[in-house]
Amino acid sequence: MQGRRSRSKTFCAMVVIGCSLLVLGACTRVEDPIADGIDSPDKDVAEYLQGMIQSARAMKKSALARGRLAMAYDANGLREAALATYKQAEALDPEDFRWPYFIAHLVAEDGEHEQALTILEHALAIDKEYAPAWLFQGSWLLKTERPDDALIAFKRATNLEPGPSADFGRAQALVAAGRHAEAIEILEPISKKSMHPQVHRTLGEALRSVGRTVEARGALAKGKDAEPLTWPDTRLKERDAHRRGHASYQLAQRLSASGKVDDALKILERLQGYHPPEKCGQEEEFFLACNLMNSLTIAYDRTGQPSKALETVQRGLSINPKFIPFHFTIANLYRQERRLEDALSHVDRAIELNPSRGYAHEQRGRLLFGLTRYDEAKSALETALQFEPAKRTTL
């Protein structure tokens, strides 16, 4: 693992050098398109990449064809191929903002923020009016402990595109600079409109630093599950169109959860062509096929198709009755129909298959409570807490 990361860092350094040479005009020849991923066991990924490679070979001087191939590699986790191919696209069209911008993001994902900032400067030299680029510059400057420079970047983003993202960035920079009172002035209005844990965590840290400990505890409690806040970025989202296989399944899950269920369904139904229901019953290929059926069930339910949802999950159970998510999903459908006994039987089956999952005991407790079996409900919820004590405040 360490060796692979070391190779990745070396490769990133080579990309930086390559980008510098491009700027100096030293790179005059672009190599043939890189072929990678065509032997992937995921046919969805392999076939898509094969088509993108063929297009790039057919249009060797097209920066767009080369850039699309790079995005396909990027979106499907082939990082080194993506970095090298973005570099080729940049050589073919040095005026396209996207290619150095995407390189910078891949380098930053490896934790090489100084190198990412250097590459980002090339992108900003092409387009200084793209606000998300300044937001990311601010974030990466914070990673390199340069809060004053980060504040300048976030202010530039604010001037271009005022809104809560740029405001929160400024607040983060102020906290890092020790200017907590100024940060609180920005964060308090944002926290009233945003439920994102990172906003509340940052506010809590600032409040604690100025001695407002009671308010700080409340804010930190809301921010206990904080993940880094990501900036909205339409250009980065261009890569999503190239996700295939498991990567596109994850995208479909996010789309469904965020309310874009029709978009999710298109991806899930396309994926099912590569991972049909019958594979859910096969020992080696069951995982994605079963998960697809389960996610389709949820998506059908969210789009107001309860009959189709129930039919899908019942078929899944007939193929693989030991796939636990099916039992939770059908239990939820039955609960919506007030068929609580039927729901309970499936939750009980899920517990038989894996008795050490707190979520299952929690759902059992809630169903028993709905059935007015209060003593059993209490016992089930107590069992849930044994497995997930962090939920003590919510159960």
Describe the structure.
The chain is mainly alpha-helical. The protein folds into 4 domains: 1-127, Serine Threonine Protein Phosphatase 5, Tetratricopeptide repeat (Alpha Horseshoe), CATH 1.25.40; 128-236, Tetratricopeptide repeat domain (Serine Threonine Protein Phosphatase 5, Tetratricopeptide repeat), CATH 1.25.40; 244-317, Serine Threonine Protein Phosphatase 5, Tetratricopeptide repeat (Alpha Horseshoe), CATH 1.25.40; 321-395, Alpha Horseshoe (Serine Threonine Protein Phosphatase 5, Tetratricopeptide repeat), CATH 1.25.40.10. 72% of the residues lie in helices and 0% in strands. Helix 2 (43-58) runs antiparallel to helix 3, helix 3 (63-75) packs antiparallel against helix 4 and helix 16 (286-302) packs parallel to helix 18 (324-336). The two termini are 40 Å apart. The model is unreliable at 1-7 and 19-28 (pLDDT under 50).
Please sum up the structure shown.
The chain has 395 residues and is mainly α.
Q: How many domains, as an integer? A: 4
Helix fraction, binned, reads over 70%
CATH topology of the largest domain: Serine Threonine Protein Phosphatase 5, Tetratricopeptide repeat
Structural class: mainly alpha
CATH superfamily of the largest domain: Tetratricopeptide repeat domain
Strand content: under 5%
Number of helices: 21
Ends apart, CA distance between termini: 40 Å
CATH class of the largest domain: Mainly Alpha
CATH architecture of the largest domain: Alpha Horseshoe
Query: Low-confidence stretches at least 5 residues in length (pLDDT < 50)?
Result: 1-7, 19-28
Largest sheet descriptor: none
| CA-based gyration radius | 25 Å
Mean pLDDT: 90
Helix and strand element order: HHHHHHHHHHHHHHHHHHHHH
